[in-house]
C-alpha cells in the first residue's frame, strides 16, 4: 500500500488555514455589523453580495475551481456571516409553545440572536430536549406563559382549535401571542376571538420557509388582527432577528397562498401520481434516465410527499382552493390543446 498519511497531514494543515481564514472573515463581518447597526443600515446588501460573488467566481476560475462550487459554498458563508451581524438592541422574553420542526427552526434563530427563549408544551421531556439543543431552558406551560412577553404558538392548526389551549390562553393576558399557521382562516378567527375574551394581543404570522436551522434572510408574513393595535414592535422584533417582514391582511394572504402553496402543491401532487402511474403502465423506471430537471423536480416531489399532511390541510382550508384547482385543471387542458393544435398545423405543412 502506498503511504497516504503525509498527504493527509498536508490536507489537515490546509484545513486549519481555511478555518482560521473563515474565522477571520467572520470577525470582520462582525465589525461590518456594528457599523451597519450604528448607521441604521439593513444587514443584507444584495449588491455587495453580487459583487463578492463575481470576485470569487473570477478568482476561482483562474485557479481551476468550478463556478458551481463557488455558487454552492458562498451563499452558506453569506448566511452565517449575516447571522453574526444580528444584534437586537432589545432582548425579548420569548416563549415557544411546541417542539416540532418549525419550533426548532425559530428557536435556533431567536436564541442565536440573543433573545431569552423558553420552550414549553404538554410533553416537558420533548420541550427540554429542544431547549438543551440550543442551550436554552424549558418550563411548564403555566410558568412559561407568566414569564414570557412574546408567545409563539408553534403547534399544528388542528391542535390550536382543539381546546388544548383553553387553560393556558387566559395566562396570555397583556402579552403578545403569535401563531405560525400557514392555513389561516379558522385559526385566525379562533385566536382573534380568544384574544378578545382573554385580553391578549394577537398577531398572526406565517414564516415563509420550511423547518430549516438558522433561517436568516428568509421571509415572514405578518397579519395583524383586530387586537394587534400598533405592530411596529413585532415587525422590529422579526426584522432584527434576521427575517424579512411582509405585512399583509388575512384575505390577501390567503389569495397569495392559494397560488404559492395550493396551486403549486396541487400540480406537484398530480405530477407525482402521474409519474408513478404512467411509468408502471409503460413498464419503465424513469429515474434510470433522469435528467437534471427530472432530478430537481423529483427532490421537490419527495418533499411534498413527506409533508403530505400539512399540504392536504392547506388544500382543504384555503378559501380559494377549489377555485384555483379548477382554474389549474382548465389551464392544463388549454396547454394540452395548444400542443395538439401546433402538432396538427405541423402535420399539415
Ligand atoms: O459587506 C457587507 O455589507 C456585509 O455585511 C458582509 C457580507 C459578506 O458576508 O460578505 C454579508 C452580508 C451582506 O449581504 C453582504 C456582504
Shape: globular
How many separate helices? 13
Instruction: Please identify which CATH superfamily of the largest domain we are dealing with.
Output: NAD(P)-binding Rossmann-like Domain
List low-confidence stretches.
Answer: none
The first-to-last residue Cα distance is: 68 Å
CATH structural architecture of the largest domain: 3-Layer(aba) Sandwich
**Mean pLDDT across residues:** 93
Largest sheet: 8 strands, mixed
| Structural class computed from helices and strand pairing | alpha/beta
**Radius of gyration, rounded?**
25 Å
- Largest sheet, spatial ordering of strands: 3-2-1-4-5-6-7-8
Strand content: 5-15%
- Any idea of the CATH class of the largest domain? Alpha Beta
* Annotated CATH topology of the largest domain: Rossmann fold
Order of helices and strands: HHHEHEHEHEHEHEEHEHHHH
Give the ligands present: prephenic acid
Q: What proportion of the residues is helical, as a percent range?
A: 55-70%
How many separate domains?
3
- For the secondary structure, the number of strands is 8
Protein name: Chorismate mutase
Keywords: Isomerase, Oxidoreductase
GO biological process, one term: chorismate metabolic process
Organism: Sulfuracidifex metallicus DSM 6482 = JCM 9184
Walk me through the structure:
The chain has 349 residues and is of the alpha/beta class. Helices cover 61% and strands 11% of the residues. It contains 13 helices and eight strands. The protein has helices at 5-39, 46-62, 67-85, 101-113, 124-133, 141-147, 157-160, 185-198, 232-240, 250-282, 292-306, 308-317, 321-348; strands at 93-97, 116-120, 137-138, 150-153, 176-179, 201-207, 219-224, 244-247. An eight-stranded mixed β-sheet has the order 3-2-1-4-5-6-7-8, sandwiched between helices. Helix 1 packs across helix 3, helix 10 crosses helix 11 and helix 10 (250-282) crosses helix 13. It is globular, with a radius of gyration of 25 Å. This is Chorismate mutase. Residues 8-88 form the Chorismate mutase domain.
Amino acid at each position: 500500500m502506498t503511504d497516504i498519511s503525509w498527504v493527509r497531514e498536508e490536507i489537515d494543515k490546509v484545513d486549519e488555514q481555511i478555518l482560521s481564514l473563515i474565522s477571520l472573515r467572520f470577525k470582520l463581518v462582525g465589525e461590518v455589523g456594528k457599523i451597519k447597526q450604528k448607521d441604521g443600515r439593513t444587514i443584507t446588501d444584495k449588491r455587495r453580495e453580487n459583487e463578492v460573488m463575481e470576485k470569487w467566481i473570477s478568482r476561482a476560475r483562474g485557479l481551476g475551481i468550478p463556478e458551481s462550487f463557488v455558487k454552492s459554498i458562498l451563499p452558506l458563508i453569506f448566511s452565517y456571516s449575516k447571522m453574526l451581524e444580528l444584534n437586537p438592541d432589545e432582548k425579548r422574553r420569548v416563549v415557544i409553545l411546541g417542539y416540532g420542526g418549525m419550533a426548532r427552526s425559530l428557536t435556533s434563530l431567536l436564541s442565536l440572536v440573543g433573545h431569552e427563549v423558553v420552550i414549553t408544551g404538554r410533553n416537558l421531556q420533548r420541550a427540554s430536549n429542544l431547549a438543551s439543543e440550543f442551550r436554552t431552558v424549558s418550563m411548564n406551560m403555566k410558568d412559561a406563559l407568566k414569564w414570557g412577553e412574546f408567545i409563539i404558538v408553534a403547534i399544528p392548526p388542528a391542535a390550536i382549535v382543539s381546546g388544548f389551549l383553553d387553560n393556558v390562553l387566559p395566562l396570555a393576558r397583556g402579552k403578545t401571542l403569535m401563531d405560525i399557521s400557514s392555513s389561516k382562516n379558522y385559526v385566525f378567527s379562533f385566536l382573534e376571538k380568544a384574544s378578545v375574551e382573554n385580553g391578549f394581543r394577537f398577531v398572526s404570522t406565517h414564516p415563509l420557509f420550511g423547518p430549516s436551522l438558522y433561517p436568516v434572510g428568509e421571509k415572514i408574513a405578518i397579519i395583524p388582527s383586530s387586537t394587534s393595535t400598533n405592530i411596529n414592535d413585532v415587525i422590529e422584533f422579526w426584522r432584527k432577528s434576521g427575517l424579512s417582514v411582509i405585512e399583509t391582511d388575512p384575505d390577501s394572504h390567503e389569495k397569495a397562498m392559494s397560488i404559492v402553496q395550493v396551486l403549486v402543491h396541487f400540480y406537484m401532487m398530480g405530477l407525482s401520481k402521474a409519474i408513478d402511474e404512467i411509468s408502471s403502465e409503460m413498464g419503465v423506471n424513469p429515474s434510470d434516465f433522469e435528467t437534471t430537471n427530472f432530478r430537481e423536480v423529483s427532490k421537490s416531489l419527495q418533499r411534498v410527499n413527506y409533508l403530505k399532511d400539512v399540504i392536504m390541510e392547506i388544500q382543504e382550508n384555503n378559501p380559494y382552493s377549489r377555485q384555483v384547482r379548477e382554474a389549474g385543471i382548465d389551464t392544463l387542458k388549454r396547454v394540452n390543446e395548444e400542443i395538439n393544435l401546433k402538432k396538427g398545423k405541423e402535420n399539415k405543412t
